[in-house]
Amino acid sequence: MRIGHDQRPLLFLDIDGTLLPFGAAGDSHLDRLDPGTGPRLAALPCTLVWATTWENEANTELAPRLGLSPLPVVRWPDPSAEHEHEDRWFGLHWKTRSLVAWAAGRPFIWVDDELTDADREWVATHHHGRALLHRVAPSRGLLAEDIPVLDRWLRTP
């Protein structure tokens, strides 16, 4: 599941509400993509990974528009009934367990518009590396001013 060419921290990227903010009715979805985001993300000292339901479509539809090479993609396994029940009980996002498993102890940042304190607590308890869960407002998405926050965290041991 992990890429083995380096051990840099991972940066898990959501798309809807994160790279593509939700806008006014009638807006073309992809028109809300900020092409400057790609170079800003690529400059970070980490390995970028798509963590979205777009899966491979993120590499064909978004990566070229952002000027990014194809990125690794998290594949979402079918959750067990037990995990679904626990996730609902604890209020976990459906991605949380999979991202912790995918990271396999590597430091990671997860950028998403649906993160909660329940996700932060679960990651702190179940992930054995550093982690930053960075929530963005779905109406604005990831902005240029978010990048220094991510960069500082990545450069802090």
- Terminal CA distance reads 25 Å
What is the count of helical runs? Answer: 6
What's the number of structural domains?
1
Question: In terms of per-residue confidence, which ranges show pLDDT below 50 for 5 or more consecutive residues?
Answer: 1-5
Shape: globular
Helix content: 25-40%
Tell how many strands the DSSP assignment holds.
Answer: 4
Biggest beta-sheet profile: 4 strands, parallel
Which percent band covers the strand fraction?
Answer: 5-15%
Secondary-structure element string: EHEHHHEHEH
Overview of the structural elements:
The structure is a single chain. The chain has helices spanning 37-42, 57-66, 81-90, 96-103, 117-126, 147-155, and strands at residues 10-13, 47-50, 108-112, 131-135. It is of the alpha/beta class and 157 residues long. The protein has one domain. The protein has a 4-stranded parallel sheet with strand order 2-1-3-4, sandwiched between helices. The longest helix is centred in the middle third of the chain and has 10 residues, at 57-66. The chain is globular and about 40 Å long. The model is unreliable at 1-5 (pLDDT under 50).
